[in-house]
Amino acid sequence: MKTPLAIAITAAALTATYALAEEPKEGGVIDTIIQPEPPGLVLGMIQNAPTRTVAGNIYEGLLRYSTDLEPMPQLAESWEVSDDGRTWTFHLRENVSWHDGEPFTAEDVVFSADVFHRELNPSARAVLQHVESIEALDDYTVAFTLKEPFGPFLISFEAGTFTMVPKHIYEGTEFRDNEANNHPIGTGPFKFENWDRGTVIQLVKNEDYYEEDLPYLDGINWHIIPDGASRAVAYENGTVDVLPYGTVENFDIPRLTEMDNTCVTEHGNEYFSPFAMLWMNNREGPTADKRFRQAVMYAMDREFARNVLWNGLGKVPLGAFGSNAKFQNDDLAPFDHDPERARELLDEMGYDGEEVRLLPLPYGETWTRWAEAVQQNLKEVGINVRTEATDVGGWNQRLGDWDYDLAFTYLYQYGDPALGISRTYLSNNIQKGSPWNNVEGYENPKVDELFNQAATAHPDEKREALYHDVQEILQEDVPVGWLLELGFPTIYRCDVKNLVTSGVGVNDGFKDAWLDR
Amino acid sequence: MLYARLIASRLFKAVVVLFLIIIFNFFLIQMAPGDPAAILAGEAGATDAEFLRQLTERFGLDQPLHVQLWRYVSGVATLDFGFSYRQQVPVLDLILERLPATLLLTGTAFVLSLVLGIVAGSLAAARVKKPSGSVIMALALVFYATPLFWVALMAVVLFSVYLEWLPAYGMYTVGAGHVGLAMALDVGKHLILPATTLALFFMAIYTRMTRASMLEAAQQDFVKTARAKGLSPRVIQRRHVLRNALLPIITLAGLQAGQMVGGAILTETVFAWPGIGRLMYEALQQRDYNLLLGIFFFSAALVIVFNIVTDLVYRLADPRIKEGS
């Protein structure tokens, strides 16, 4: 179903194509919002979403990724792989300097990857465990030698995950206590200027940026406004020009997008591609029976949730692999909304009406309403649901302790099943204490084997076959409920041009942005 | 001399009370579900066992509770409130950075509500049987009964969105680069909406209380005497009635002043005022124990200070009150 907003987005996409033909103008400062306030700005040390969003303009990775998730040059100009798929060689740009004037070289890459990230960064660590050695061949050439071919290697160099940090500042210091953390030094198009806690983070143009003419803007002000309604007002009365994803409540989005001179895009989400899921406790209670879990999938009206709660944005997924993930198996039987089928499955397993506890995600109104909708759907087929609301801390603890039956969550996909998807299903990823690993407690040796083989199979055709098999098993077992691939829109004034130019959206979009004023 | 001894003894008691509060708060916070390391890891969206181990070790959360308590109390004794888990900044720095904004906001609201409340209440008492008196009381009732957040939102819609007279949020215009007087004016403009919103509720209470206690005082014999002496009604109202009606208002003002640090969470959130209330709310959400304890400490200290100040003011307002009586 095409909603008016979806049409507006298509129109905005067309406008964006036109914009490329225009001559960019220099100057101007963009006012935007960061929500919540980030804990710090040193990427690599902190990887949460608000830090990525602001600091993605200060720091850079070796590569960036298009909205189709194709690698594009950033600090690395070009790259090649050996025939056995084990050695990747990156050729770095030669005219790059850090914000303090020191040159950026291969030594920085080796330090960032081999020392800094290995110690501090769990996301990078997941990739680095496949890396045997990292060597600087000369000042501008780096070779990564892998233990075995690793399919998603080339997609893991995004700035937020695999940030390049300055060796001359961090080497030999206690990284977390380094004085420089208060004044981050990167290679990016914008430099850190000022952080007035609780009010604003200000970045200014990097005059010495290596790309000719970039950036066009003089700076970016990230306003910190804790209340959702006040953030909407800030856009309405013209104080801010860009509302990145998640900054206003969903019910405000249709109203704001109808304003004059307002454009909206769903692009810029492709790399993270947040996937909303329903954790189902595979260990005990009715949810331990796969027929119950299948029944939940048939009972939920996911189209309704998308159209009503999420303003028609996002995609209803077929199964465990989101649409932006590679190697999707399109032959799977979809879980359509089919309450009758759900009731049959419940009868077949002999469900006795035992109460199941549902934990909504404490991230605002939309999630609360969504939990209510799911509860309603489940009650319709005879499942007895009790909602247990918590705050963020309680939610983390309950999931980490596996103290739940059903629970909402959303996880990033990171462009490749081996990075963002397998972690939810691998049995060695069952570890108490974290709400982001295999929380549901799913154990299937065949699935483990297929995922592990697929991560390191070479070339891609072999990976595809393995991933297609694993998706069939998951579709049958339903370890978790697949709710929705979230469509987080970026709302902005139409005279902000070239805002979203990559698969990470505003996280580095201000590099190319300019103001037509 | 008498005052000096009084203050000394009160300060000694205050230190004991503060110490008990520190210990009580420490255990209270430990009882909240949710481990700070898990929340920090959760915020990062990706985690492994190593990451959790590093965090727990760094914050000393792997230590037994009594060790953590000892570390904390001995730290506070030297004004070291520890590090904020989430922001990696000393707690004292964070609090001192935010405290001025809160004091400016709540202080303005305090003065505004007290002055306007007493004036409106006196007027209402003087016009007790006239329509103008009823109008004041009706308004006071409305402000007393209306939820603060709603008033705040409506004020923004009216004055910022429609009329565009006043800024909707923040403490100053970002990027304007004002200095000196221009900066003060800019902050003043940003202060109007939040301070008024925050003041309305207490102003309504002061109005109602002033009127009630003035009407009560007006029935007293000494007022009749004053009237019999032929003093003008205005002088009677001010010198004899109002002065005697002030005591309950001082009590209430002391309570309000004590709430200054933590009492503005809602207003600070809606108006994006960079104060302590917001910091406290965020710290709670993040289970940022050290920061939360630090803010509790400062709020408690302020409550105690204002209790002492209130006692002293009582004595000034009514010399009959003495130590021990």
Can you give a write-up of this model?
The complex is a heterodimer of chains A (517) and B (325). Helices cover 31% and strands 18% of the residues of chain A. Chain A has 16 helices and 20 strands. In chain A, strands 15-14-16-13-17 form a five-stranded mixed sheet. A four-stranded mixed sheet of chain A has the order 1-10-9-8, with no helix packed on it. A four-stranded antiparallel sheet of chain A has the order 4-5-7-6, with helices on one face. Residues 10-19 of chain A have low confidence and may be disordered. With 325 residues, chain B is an all-alpha fold. Chain B folds into two domains: 1-80, no CATH class; 98-322, MetI-like (MetI-like fold, Orthogonal Bundle), CATH 1.10.3720.10. Chain B is globular, with a radius of gyration of 24 Å. The mean pLDDT of chain B is 84. Classes of the chains: A alpha+beta (517), B mainly alpha (325). At the A-B interface, helix 4, helix 6 and helix 12 of A face helix 2, helix 3, helix 5, helix 7 and helix 11 of B.
